[in-house]
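Pair request: fold both.
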Amino acid sequence: MTLQTLLDRFDLLMDTPESVPKLRRFILQLAVRGRLSDRRASDEPAATLVERMEAEKERLDAAGEYKYQKTMPPIEKDDIPFSFSVPKGWTWVRLGNLGKVYGGGTPKKSNSAYWGGEIPWVSPKDMNGAVIQSTEDKITQKGLEESSAKLVPPGSLLIVGRSGILERKLPVAVTAVECTANQDLKVLTPFVSGMARYIRLILKGFEPHILDELVKTGTTVRSLKYTEFQLHSYPLPPIDEQQRIVETVDGLMDECDALEEQQEREHALQVQVGTAATEALQSADDAEQLRRAWERVSEHFDTVTATPKGVDALRQTILQLAVQGRLTKYAPSDTPVESLLERVEGQKQRLYEEGKVSKPKSKSAVKDEPFTLPEDWTWVRLCRIAKVDDPNPSHRMPEYVEEGIPFISAESLVGRDSIDFSSGKKVKQSTLSEQIERFSILPGSFALSRIGTIGKTRFLPRERTYCMSHSLCVISPYSPNSVSPDYLRRVVSSGLVLEQAVEGTQSIGVPDLGMGVIRSFKVPLPSKEEQERIADILDHLVPLCDSLEDQLLQENAVGDRLLSESLLTAGQERETLLVGQ
């Protein structure tokens, strides 16, 4: 499979989220290895180009325009990234030998005479593309003359080396206009004009290696190690071949742009169709509208479930319909909800007398009902039917130990329905004793994550061999025989309750859902028999959604593997064709 054949067939491999970004990286990797260009006898050898650059360095030094490191260490085998050989006519050079490297500067912000002029002043916020045409801020000639800022000629490279945006990529742009740059940028003005776009290409081609090896870590703001950065080795082709490589890469990147736009259009259509279908389900006012909405979902089922996000929307819609009473019917033999609540109150009193719960407090009735319930349902506050405990109300961190009791938190709620008791911190036995004394885990108790990640739920083992962080709360139905733990957990996991959680979450810093908000959750309550019918339906439908999501993830993994293999094959065949050129 040649590169062009791969591009021609790429639509068959582009269903994975990483397909186009992976193709872009592959193109850059081929380019910097000389696998996208042919050798020509008329090209000036790269060694001659190096001699021209050396002569320009000496001229600048003699004129006092640039002081450079006259001798750089020779390039050894270990200096060559990935240990690949360059084509005939190419050579290896260090970045510092390619151009004049200098820093930017910023005139005093407090002096208005320095700002609002005609000279573009580039800062990291302007580094959003490959070419700098204009800037948000401009300085005056006075600002240039009375600060450390320097004029940067067109055809130079600007490199962001100290900024918060140096997390996933190395921002590099070529200047199309004369400008200045701020102190967070480094400037590389090539010794031979016309090389800037190729230098940018090789920097992007080696970007992962640069960020892995040449970025300072352990500080709040990451930054490039400039001394080592200038010593980094890169493959250099003849200057005419550089231009051919840049043109070829530009053309291939245009094709990638088209593929990406196609992906975005298809994804937008999937989201639009899926959203319309699930919203129609949720907004249906009667059985006939609900039936027609289900038919619409069935007709577009492949589109609705084409993405994990679409499957999750369907899952949440099913859950929402269930807790609205749309998937079940009241049976005349069902126990009235009023009788159910009387039993709950009786059980609360017995638990109080046994010392297992604190004295129940009265809670205001539900007003402003989220939606109209079936006639045989009622609205209640969560605290009326369940005990809600904060495992660590002081919020003081316990003393951690190497060997001890597992200490689970919101991060321990992994997968779809699991708790990881092994990977978290450990605490002393005394911490467990304090929690056992503070609250009981009743039958049917489950945890709700309330800090950081909001809304995950997991049933809890009753055997107290673990401690819990205050990032979790414990919800325990007072009377599991009256309020089904399965049903209650489904309600707490539904969009109905999560919307109430969003309204009650403090969003400054880490999201934090208060205990008072949780205890006040509005919960729709049907008869116990209907709760069980709802739980039974969800036990069939939710696993179906889980299976669809797993299938999508597996297909994405297979597609990603096939794409990787195809890219590797194309690269190897292209390399074989060019050996010896």
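--- second member of the pair ---
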Amino acid sequence: MTVERLLLSGDDAVALAALHAGVRLGTGYPGTPSTEILETFDQLGGRAQWSPNEKVALEVGIGSAFAGARTIVTMKHVGLNVAADALFTAAYTDVEGGLLVISADDPGMASSQNEQDNRHYARAAALPMLEPSDSQQAYDFTWLGLELSERWKIPVILRLTTRICHAKTVVRPRPALQTLPEPSFKRDVPARVMIPAYAKPAHLRLRQKLAEIAAWNEAEGPFEIHEGDATLGIIATGIGAMHAREAAPGASHLSFGLTYPLPIERLRAFADRVERLVVIEEGDPVLVDALRAVGLPAEGKPEMYRFGELNVERVRRILANDTSPEAVPPKGKPPELCPGCSHRGVFETLRDLDCIVSGDIGCYTLGVLPPFSAMDTCVCMGASIGVGLGLRHVLPEEQARRVVSVIGDSTFVHSGLTGLAEMVYNPPPTGHLVLILDNGTTAMTGQQEHPGTGRLLDHSATNLLNFEETARAMGVQNVHVIDTTSLKDDSLRDLITDLLARNETSLIVTRQPCVLAAPKIRLYEKANAEQRTATCAADLVD
């Protein structure tokens, strides 16, 4: 029998494995490099949905797993910060269906505001973590993560990185599951209601689970040894294992997939067989510090290699202890707002008015660059409103009246609603002005839907969150909507000038579809209108 061979990215391999393994629900928030997982899962026929943010996505996933359904929750690395509140307590609970939390890290910050190493989350939350080194392992570890989750009734983290997510390698899939138990809720209050009386014994159970998983990892966890020259032994995980094998093909190599809890004795046995032991890992010295902590004489990489992605040449330099300056990569074309982007006119106006602009995460972050140079802060999703309010509270009045918060439509739903509540609850003496730049899509990550578009992940119609009505209901004093496709000269400038002079809370929604997404949006809306017409006609016949 010939085994099917597919060329898949890591993201696509995870999606295919989720389908084959019987995942009933995939939730998440789009963010490079994780976005394609749910999009592909949906295209393959799985049930996938975008949530307003990662915390909500994980909470929905926890509920699904409580009901006995296999579930995946996807996000990029900074998204796990947003989901962490639910994650840490979910670790104490018992999940019936497999719950796989997929964190896609971005070493080198190809499209992120930091390059945090989410391996720390496994240790901090006390959750098992799997790290694949290619698309085949991404496929296999998706199955394995769900199986481990069900066996020990614990959420499992699958940590991918940019290179794993987007590089393509051969995958040999296994036969899809044909039957799975139907979801059903079984009451188990001590395992699901984390009040102190139940959480204290739950913490003890969590540590017992980890001890059992560690023993399983020692005995039969995913582990691979390539015997070679005993003068050099390399321990590596994730994409680092692939780079290391190419950089030093004659060395002895050990790679393993369940990176927390560690299979310490198996690692110790390997270390005992080699003269020099080197750890190759992207990001922080997580693995090398853990090995040194148990007495293994492991060498890590010099500090200069802690930053950015590894590659074969960098691994060769690490093995040679080469700390000479690395070649400076050629400068690429700086990113810029698209020609015709509706954000351009907004940033030109803010620049000309000499506003102090508290910015946010999205395409519009590019307003910081020339020719606009109209953004002064950018921290994380939704921070524009809170940071802007903080500036307003303490700056001298002349400067305070120049502060404006700028946020996108998807980001506003993600984390801006609570900022708006803060503005209404604790208004600065000079008031405040928030601008929502609504381009009708989550543009920077690939034009995904969100609650403000009125369309689901598959672009079909659903309920729409109306920003201006929401703001009025929350108590914002001045709410204005401007269609920038028909914007008259100086009308936006005049409105901003007027609102900055008031001691009141104000919101301006500038609305114009993303120039790249607009043709697709028209097609989606046409298809949804036709579907509504067909549904109405069918109802009349009935």
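Observation on the second member. The two ends are 51 Å apart (CA to CA).
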